[in-house]
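Q: I'm writing up a methods section and want to include an example of the input and output format. Could you take the sequence below and give the corresponding predicted structure tokens, formatted cleanly so I can copy it straight into the document?
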Amino acid sequence: MPTRAVKVKQARVQSTRAARGLVPYVGLDSRAWRELKRKFKGHCKSRNMQCHICRTPIDYTLTSGRWAFEADHKYPRKLYPHLTLTWSNLLPSNVKCNRSRQAKAVMPQELWIQPDW
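A: Here is the clean output for your methods example:
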């Protein structure tokens, strides 16, 4: 059983995290994530959306493999954990593209370097 000093320290840490607005990490094995991913996949499938990275069609019938659907986080979960379960942070992608991008943020097209000509 924790001592009073340990309990006070734990309470202090929890209140500090709450004051800073830190949200506990939400894993991709949570029920909330699985439900959001299922709904997002249905949304993308009904509109026949393509991969936002390589612009190729996604095979929504596949459950695994390089060309299967995978919900990509526009702002990486590692850097923005509070946006993990936010619909507007999701983009459709292939497994191959999403895994190759890793934890890099999506760059808007306005920031791409344009040729001078």
